[in-house]
Design goal:
This protein is mainly beta. It is built from no helices and nine strands. Helix content is 0%, strand content 40%.
């Protein structure tokens, strides 16, 4: 199997910067290269591009299936839907495509315990 470069770009609410917290990708990341832990909301911080965009680049083997979510360093600040409700795990299967780069673009609508979802 071939190695895939997996690029996650996530658009976050404008309220994110005011939390002074890093956006983390959380999930079955032990399936990827790099020794990431599974489901640890503070272990895999992303890079801030601007106030509403964060990114990270990971690698893994073609065909690997992941489940994941986004969190602001802990589960008290996990992602929520437009009505502040729980959302299911996101899913992606690494695909090599034509150039070995798999890009994922997600949007977080709200964070738990960040206005309008509490506090």
């Amino acid at each position: 199997r071939r190695t895939v470069t997996l690029i996650f770009n996530v658009t976050v609410p404008a309220t994110t910067d005011a939390t002074n917290r890093d956006v983390n990708i959380v999930g079955t990341l032990a399936r990827l290269d790099g020794g990431h832990p599974d489901w640890d909301p503070g272990a895999t911080p992303m890079t801030r591009v601007n106030a509403t965009l964060w990114t990270t680049t990971l690698t893994g083997q073609e065909g690997t299936q992941l489940e994941y979510k986004y969190a602001l360093e802990d589960w008290e600040h996990g992602e929520k839907d437009a009505t502040c409700g729980e959302i299911g795990n996101r899913q992606v299967t690494l695909t090599y495509g034509t150039d070995g780069v798999h890009k994922v673009a997600d949007t977080v609508v709200n964070w738990r315990n960040v206005a309008p979802c509490g506090n």
